[in-house]
Amino acid sequence: MYTYAEEVMKLSSVMTLADKIQKGYKTVIKASAGTGKTYRLSLEYIANMICGISYENIVVMTFTKKATAEIKDRIFEFLEDIVFEKNDYKSLESNLSDIFGINKENIDKEVLKKLYIEMIKNKEDVRIYTIDGFTSQIFKNTIAPYLGIYGFETLDIDKPDFYNEILISIFKNEDYMKKFEFVFDELKENRKIETYLDFLKEIIDNRTKFILAKDYKIPEKIVVNISFIDELESIFTAVEQFSEIKNKELKNCFNKDDFEIYNKYKEIEEKKLDPIEEKREKINLLIENTKCLLKEKIWNGTTISKKTELGELLLESFDKFKENFCKYIFNEKLLPLQNNIIELKGIIFKLCDEKKKSEKALTHNDVTNYTYEFIYNEELSFVKEGKVTDKFFDLIGGRIDTIMIDEFQDTSVLQWKILILMMNATKNIICVGDEKQSIYSWRGGEKQLFEKLENLIDADVEELDRSYRSYKEIMENVNSVFTGIKEDWNYSEVKYRTDEEYQKGYFGYHIKEHPTVKDEDSDPTEKAIENIVEMLKSGEIKNVGNTCIIARTGKQLNEIAERLNEENISYTINSNASLLEHKAVDSVYKLIKYFSTNNFIYLLEFLRSDLMNYSNAQMKQYIDIVAESKYLKSDSFNDIEKNVVELILKLENDSKNLNNINAKEDFARNLISSFCLLDKYSSKSDIKNIFKFFNILKSHSNIQEFVQYIEEKRDDLTQLSSDDSLAVNLMTIHKSKGLEYETVLFYYNSTSKKPNDTSKFKMYVDYDKKYEHVVNFFITLRKYAGILEYTDYAAVDEQNAIKQEHEEMNALYVGLTRAKKNMAVFLDVKSYKGGEVKDILALKLRGLYSSVFDYKSGEIAENVKDDNKVKVEDYDIDILDYIDNTKFSKLDTNSFNKKLKLADEFKRKVGLAIHYYFEHIKNNIEIEKMQAESALFLKYGNLLGVERVENILVRIEKFINDNKEIYNPKYKVYTEFEIINENAEKRIIDRVNIDEDTKEITIYDYKTGEDPGNKEKYIKQLEEYKKIIEEKTNGEYKIMTKILEI
Q1: In the chain, pLDDT over 70 holds for what percent of residues?
Q2: Which residue from 64, 99, 582, 593 has the fewest beta carbons nearer than 10 Å?
Q3: 85: alpha, beta or left? (left if phi > 0; alpha if psi -120 to 50)
Q4: What is the mean pLDDT of residues 74-88?
């Protein structure tokens, strides 16, 4: 049998894990993609438990909720398999022996079973967190009470109006306003309020860096003179002499902008000023034109070639000028500017703190920042001699004997500085990561922390170097691509499984070159996206539900989604694309905005939209008529357009009377049918997003309120996917990290222009080798970044550029390691003069395979199920009644009755809603009913519609009135009561009433189906509940059961 343990570093036969735990051990595990890190961490957890470490004293941290859930599930799954000897328990026991020296004879399964059941009963004591969640717990239990913050809300980002209110607070305070005045001067080229809000937001977003650099001493002015004036004048003189000798017009010897500077410079000289005043004016002129003066040259390079002796001398002189000029500006301009920024940030942070504390709304970054800032506070006594104290451990749930950190390569410096305090007070440390998968530097991730970690904590290093994910064909190609792809990017070959099944697989690529210099007669090159579409259309990929298209950016993903829509190929998109970016929704929303605001622009946008696709000639007719009459009227149009206008006017009239659910549904039906929306947009993804949009509309009392809501929530309203087993998955590289698919179609487009960096600031931060102190810090406005190229900060900038190159390489690695069986790569790349290609991935692929543009190796391997049926969707039933069954024939390859299935699904949701209401009801007091009703509308209002929820409430009220005794205040009540059966399986009881006077317990089970009391399975279920409760109460209570039909 092929075992995991064959591929990991074996522990010494002399020293078992139990021996190591006695002394304390530290391990850094470097795990390439697919090499089983979750398996290993789960096994480490169980091994620690077997060796006597209480689960209450083991902390596991990772970076996403999904990863947290996965590792928790895996630990419980492995424990269950071992203690009940289920599934692959022998392999688990073998690996525990091989890796940790724990023989099966040393595993006390009865003790482990008791611990397992205890863990299930006390899941809140199982300390597995996201790193943000763990930091939040630290803050909540230790720092927040000190700051007087209780019951705070945790946000992903600050609320939209937060920055406005901070800016207003600055403007209202005279002293603060004086400190802000330099911002007006520096950003005078764009005096829009948004400019100042962006400035403010960037200061706040970079608070972490300011905190880390708090003790950094700002450098003194560097020694500099104003010799750069003489250097520039010598260049001017040389160009003048060249002009005279060569008989060329002087202005043609300079670049246009630079000749203007030259003229202004000479005008100053002609004023015959005092020498000091003259130099001052010249310096001011040069500073005003800094951007021009930092170019490669100021003279005309065609007229004076750099290959000539004069050209070389001018370049040498100009470099010397720029160096001295930049040092001068650094002294006189940038250092004072940094001081102003730092002084202002103190005011901004003070206002932020006051507002956040008063509103009790903190972001995850706030929580981390405050935790770090106050954890060292001497009054709190949380840190002593570089590690946390027992007092700290007591407040966060007890000491930590073993700490495990997953995805360590994504740890930020600030998180590290908090974690190391706990690691220094913990005996056993296991950190897992892969520097090749570090793709979150924009979020603060510092991959060099992981690269240096074994030295930072004096740990042993272990490498997991065999992939358990990918087939041979993929792994051999991934190894070939990344071995030596970049000189300073390290890659070690990863092995693959040797069992027969894993010797299969498919790898291929398609490269499309797009010339930067285009022949006027040539057609534009078709994008590689077309190869993806063709591969799906041709049926080459059959198991599309386990296929993922991965792209670098959300924009590229949306482009692919549009083509799939056009070809009626179902897809599931996993991105943050706004609902309003969906083409169908975008079109109808523009029309609704026209109804709401009566702004003719929105009507024109609707007519131009993808749905209507009006020509310029058709648009002109509308513009001319409305310009003349000031409003839309059908009799002004020709017969064809008259029908369209009448439809618009009727819908506009309907939009004014949406005072009940029927009117809203009629309006939605009519809008859908009037413009044949579902003829053009008929994929499952289209329909889900269209109905999500109209369901939101139905939850509002009028069009204006709906539009206001949409505008406020536009960034939070994301597109839905089809969630279809016959739909291909779409996601960005960042979203795909940690996931795997049978088949991956990887799209990479290096022809796209990189988005302009709109940030206002340029920050330079560098740390010592142990990340204890900041050794270099500087902040300035981005427009002055060129100045710092001639200072010591240039080295920091160069390091950051290298980091960005590495992160781009890491993104490629992540994208190319998600596939289990089949990998196809699709590249759009630029080709330059002579057909030169610079894209690193395209170069490597063509270098490996004889410079061909298309390559295939192996055969596609898939698991295709016979009963691959489409799942029922959460559609709104009333709107669905309008749609022809023919529309749905596109969504389903089977002939089952869709309406029946949808009706069943609807009944199920009504049942869930009723159960959800009763979770909040114990004794039927008014406050409980109010809370239950509010919760019900919040969770099910949009899904079922307001009117249906109101009908459910009527039904519930009748039931409660008919069964008042059940809700008598004399009972001690538990709702959603969790119990564990003898097989350690969880069961949930809807309601338990305890009468302490009569020593009676009644178990109630709510059912919403027909005659549930006669269904044998429900009766059997209640008998199981009864038996468990009888055992728990040792026969002290009489136990009764009853099914409640609602």
Answers
A1: 88
A2: 64
A3: left
A4: 90
Buried residues in 957-984 as b, exposed as e (16+ CB within 10 A): eebbeeeeebbeeebebebeeebeeeeb
Q: Are 33 and 814 in contact, with CB atoms under 8 Å apart?
A: yes
Neighbours of 1027 (CB within 10 A): 13
Q: Is the pLDDT of residue 551 over 90?
A: yes
Using alpha carbons, select from 456, 476, 458 the residue that is nearest to residue 467: 476
Asked whether 544 and 726 are in contact (CB, 8 A), the reply is: yes
**What is the chain's length?**
1046
pLDDT tens digits, residue range 351-365?
Answer: 999 999 988 889 999
Q: Residue 284's CB: how many other CB atoms inside 10 A? A: 11
- pLDDT of 512-528, one tens digit each? 998 887 766 556 678 99
Residues 6+ apart with CB under 8 A from 473: 504, 505, 506, 507, 857, 858
| Residue whose token pair is 């029946």 | 900
Smallest CA-to-CA distance from 70 within 137, 130, 136, 131 is with 130
CA distance linking residue 259 with residue 240, whole number of Å:
11
**Cα within 13 Å of Cα(41), Cβ side:** 32
Does pTM top 0.85 for this prediction? Answer: no
Q: Give 892's Cβ-side CA count (13 Å radius).
A: 17
pLDDT value at residue 639: 66
Alpha carbon of 1002 to those of 176, 475, 515, 916, 944: distances in Å? 66, 59, 78, 20, 32
Region 262-291: mean pLDDT is: 91
pLDDT above 90 (res 135):
yes
How far apart, in whole angstroms, are the C-alpha atoms of residue 1000 and residue 1038?
A: 5
Helix (H/G/I), strand (E/B), else coil: 982: coil
Distance of CA 307 to the CA centre of its chain: 51
3-state SS, one letter per residue, for 290-322? HHHHCCCCCECCCCCCCCCHHHHHHHHHHHHHH
Q: What is the DSSP string of 612-629?
A: T---HHHHHHHHHHHHHH
- Mean pLDDT in residue range 652-668: 85
Distance CA 765, CA 1032 (A): 60
> Strand order of the sheet with strand 128-130?
128-130, 58-62, 402-405, 428-433, 26-31, 460-464
What residues contact 64, with CB distance under 8 A and at least 6 apart?
130, 407, 738
Q: Cβ atoms within 10 A of the Cβ of 490, count?
A: 11
pLDDT tens per residue across span 1018-1027: 888 888 899 8
Q: Output the 3-class SS for 329-351.
A: HHHHHHHHHHHHHHHHHHHHHHH
CA pseudo-torsion sign 74, 75, 76, 77: positive
For tokens 């699709």, the residue is: 826
**For position 201, what pLDDT does the model report?**
93
3-state secondary structure of 407: coil
**What letter would DSSP give residue 397?**
T
How far lies 12's CA from each of 9, 101, 102, 405, 842, in Å? 9, 8, 12, 24, 45
Q: Is the distance from CB of 861 to CB of 507 less than 8 angstroms?
A: no
**Mutual angle of helices 109-121 and 65-83, in 10-degree steps:** 140
Residues ≥6 apart with Cβ < 8 Å to 474: 505, 506, 507, 819, 820, 821, 822, 823
**What does DSSP say about strands 383-384 and 387-388: parallel, antiparallel, or unpaired?**
antiparallel
Q: How far is CA 706 from CA 600, 655, 668, 711, in A?
A: 19, 11, 13, 9
Cα distance between residue 637 and residue 649, in whole Å:
13
What pLDDT digit, counting tens, does each position of 375-415 carry?
Answer: 999 899 999 999 999 999 999 999 999 999 999 999 999 99
Measured between alpha carbons, how far is 270 from 264 in angstroms, rounded to an integer? 10
